[in-house]
Amino acid sequence: MVSLTISSASKPPSFAKGFPLTIDVTSDTTVADVKASIAAKFPKFYSARQKISLKTDKKALSDDTKLSTLLGSQLQGGELQVKDLGAQVSWRTVFLIEYVGPLIIHPIFYYFPRLWYGRSFQHSELQKYVFAFVMLHFIKRELETVFVHRFSHGTMPFRNIFKNSAHYHIFSGLFLAFDVYRPKYSATSPYVVGTYRNNETFLWAAAGVWAFAELSNLHTHLTLRNLRPAGTRTRKVPYGYGFTQVSCPNYFFEVIGWLVVCGMTNSIAAWIFFVFGTVTMSLWALKKHRNYMKEFGKEYPRGRKAIFPFIL
Are 2 and 25 in contact (CB under 8 A)? Predict the structure, then answer.
């Protein structure tokens, strides 16, 4: 048993004024154990709020890292830093809040057009299809959040919940709902009557492609879930349906689903959400693709792209 000093990398929170802190550790002590010791001293400074790093390096240390691998076998005199990440909220909660926005917003615009457009009108089949697509998509997202997804990171800063939710509540919620349920797309609008937007065969074909994309997206989420045993952060190379050509087929199928909505409506709001979402998912996919290649090396299939087969 030796002593280890924990200093504060920034101004500590008001409920944790005892830094620097000295704790007793062994060669088997992990970063998670250090966090637990700090939380035991300052209960409000719970582990999820803490970022532990070396004094000479600001990079966060993994919870399962042993101190002996960081500071050598001679731990006496070693020093780590802790930074307060602020109040935390679980990723599962964040996702539930993000996806519930469109589920509330779209019915308000769809069922109460007089409030937003000043008059009532008959919805076109196009609007009915789009409404069904949006509601089913986000209901699926909520169910996946509760029953399918396993998160490698348990929490995120509470303040980020507003930024993350804005994308869904504003772009796929307010903007999309206001645009696609307005009179321009109604059953008697010349923009719809006599066009492909009112063609039953086209609408059924669009529904078929959309359903294919949604079910394929669900399938890849289930594949990813089965790669990670409950309660672990285990990562394995994903194989199977969708993964032959790209590292992130879930994003690829998501893109297809929203592209269907854009093609059906040609709504400027739909296109804005589609472009913004596609760029964001492409950046996520490229990062995950690089991480896969770095982590698994030669074991990772070299022919895969990040998100779009043969392209990116």
Answer: yes
Q: Report pLDDT for 153.
A: 67
Least confident of 39-53, 106-120, 185-199, 260-274: 39-53
Mean pLDDT of 61-83: 73
CA distance between the termini of the chain: 52
Instruction: Please say if the pLDDT value at position 47 is more than 90.
Output: no
CB under 8 A, 24+ apart: contacts of 256-262:
256/209, 256/212, 256/213, 257/133, 257/137, 257/210, 257/213, 257/214, 257/217, 260/133, 260/206, 260/209, 260/210, 260/213, 261/130, 261/133, 261/134, 261/210
Answer yes or no: do 10 and 148 share one domain. no
277 in any annotated domain: yes
Residue with tokens 């979402």: 277
**Count of domains for the chain:** 2
Residue 200 and residue 255 in one domain:
yes
Residues 37 and 117 both lie in one domain? no
| Distance, CA of 14 to CA of 84 (rounded, Å) | 11
- Ranges 17-31, 65-79, 123-137: which has the least confidence: 65-79
Measure Cα distances from 300 to 45, 99, 236 in Å.
39, 33, 10
CB 214 within 8 A of CB 137: yes
Identify the CA nearest to 60 among candidates 176, 148, 188, 153: 153
Residue 113's identity, in one-letter code, is: P
Residue type present at position 19:
F
Residue keyed to tokens 């698994």: 296
Closest Cα to residue 65, out of 101, 104, 25, 119?
Answer: 25
Residue 230 has pLDDT above 70, yes or no: no
Range of the domain at 76: 2-86
